[in-house]
């Protein structure tokens, strides 16, 4: 990332998160967004329409691309916002562009950075605790925000996260450096493990997690996840599962009570979900460590069934 004055950023897999990010970054960078043809056509025709807490209006200046041949040679940094189920495929498709460049992941779940590290030396781990959705081709909604974006060095050039943070911050997005982003990814995953599958299965917004019938399931999911994270040596910011649950029910669930998480849209649209990077991942690790994870195994099984039998 040499030219901070006018950096060139490529966003890979631009949907709800990636197009919203593109819309903000375009004020401080030249932004190329690798997206599907329907988004590309709408954005070329009339720009990106944004609504919500990141601003309302039509944003020009984003260049949509639908293949690596359309990406210019001078990319300073790559940010991946594809679903974790698509990480390898999109890295393969854009391998020539990614190689040798810093690449950040804002994806949920555990395991994306390891895949990205097969394609480039400098990987930046990231989390975003904001709710994004697609309202139509080239049209996104940003509905609520509970914490700043976190970015931290995963591998390679240790200065790369700082340079990306500068760009993101200058675009007006709240962002913080994270010097233990491996634990940071688990910290963010706690929220997704607690609410994403339940909301997807129940067709309900995040507030459903506080329902008296559901709360006990959330408690089970999180206590098991804590035991597994502990066995993995992950340092979470709350000392115990119950300390995190207090934060979840007093801050995160109220912040997102009225909105639907990303997995809800996947199941509703008949797409594969990220369950195997979240609850399914916890269940797999639990097995390896001899830690029972009945809640996570059960919820992962239900989501896999729902994926295979679209409503
Ligand atoms: N939606 C949300 O509120 C949040 C989502 N996240 C995470 O961010 C990541 C992205 O989530 P969303 O933006 O909601 O998903 P999304 O499904 O809206 O966007 C991903 C986009 O990537 C596109 N894509 C995949 N492969 C492609 C390829 N080869 N070429 C071009 N486009 C390709 C898909 O068609 C899709 O439009 C996920 O890991 C999600 O868990 C994180 C925080 C909040
Ligand atoms: C924070 C939250 C719940 C925001 O929607 C999210 O990460 C997701 O939807 O996957």
TrEMBL record:
Superkingdom classification of source: Archaea
Residue stretches making up the Ketopantoate reductase C-terminal domain: 180-304
InterPro entries assigned to the protein according to its UniProt record, in alphabetical order: 6-PGluconate_DH-like_C_sf, 6PGD_dom2, ApbA, KPA_reductase, KPR-Related, KPR_N, NAD(P)-bd_dom_sf
Annotated catalysed reactions: (R)-pantoate + NADP(+) = 2-dehydropantoate + NADPH + H(+); (R)-pantoate + NAD(+) = 2-dehydropantoate + NADH + H(+)
Residues of the Ketopantoate reductase N-terminal domain: 9-155
Enzyme Commission no: 1.1.1.169
Pathway recorded for this protein: Cofactor biosynthesis; coenzyme A biosynthesis
GO MF, one example: 2-dehydropantoate 2-reductase activity
Keyword set, alphabetical order: Coenzyme A biosynthesis, NADP, Oxidoreductase
Function summary: Catalyzes the NADPH-dependent reduction of ketopantoate into pantoic acid.
UniProt family annotation: Belongs to the ketopantoate reductase family.
Name of protein: 2-dehydropantoate 2-reductase
Source organism per UniProt: Methanoculleus palmolei
């Amino acid at each position: 990332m040499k030219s901070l004055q006018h950096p060139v950023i490529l966003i890979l897999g631009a949907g709800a998160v990636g197009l919203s990010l593109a819309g903000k970054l375009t004020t401080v960078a030249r932004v190329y967004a690798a997206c599907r043809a329907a988004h590309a056509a709408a954005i070329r025709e009339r720009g990106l329409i944004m609504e919500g807490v990141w601003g309302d209006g039509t944003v020009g200046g984003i260049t949509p691309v639908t293949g690596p041949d359309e990406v210019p040679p001078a990319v300073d940094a790559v940010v991946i916002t594809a679903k974790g189920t698509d990480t390898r495929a999109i890295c393969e498709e854009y391998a020539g562009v990614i190689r040798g460049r810093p690449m950040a992941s804002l994806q949920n779940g555990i395991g994306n950075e390891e895949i990205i590290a097969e394609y480039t030396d400098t990987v930046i781990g990231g989390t975003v605790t904001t709710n994004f959705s697609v309202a139509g081709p080239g049209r996104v909604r940003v509905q609520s925000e509970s914490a700043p974006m976190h970015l931290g060095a995963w591998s390679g050039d240790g200065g790369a996260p700082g340079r990306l943070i500068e760009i993101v911050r200058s675009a007006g997005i709240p962002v913080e450096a994270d010097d233990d982003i491996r634990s940071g990814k688990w910290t963010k995953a706690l929220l997704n493990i607690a609410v994403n599958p339940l909301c997807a299965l129940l067709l309900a917004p995040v507030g459903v997690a506080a329902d008296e019938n559901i709360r006990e399931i959330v408690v089970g999911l999180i206590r098991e996840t804590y035991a597994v994270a502990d066995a993995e040596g992950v340092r979470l910011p709350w000392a115990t599962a119950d300390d995190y649950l207090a934060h979840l029910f007093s801050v995160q669930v109220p912040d997102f009570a009225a909105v639907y998480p990303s997995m809800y849209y996947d199941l509703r649209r008949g797409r594969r979900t990220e369950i195997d990077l979240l609850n399914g991942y916890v269940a797999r690790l639990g097995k390896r460590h001899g830690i029972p994870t009945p809640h996570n195994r059960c919820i992962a099984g239900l989501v896999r069934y729902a994926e295979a039998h679209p409503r």
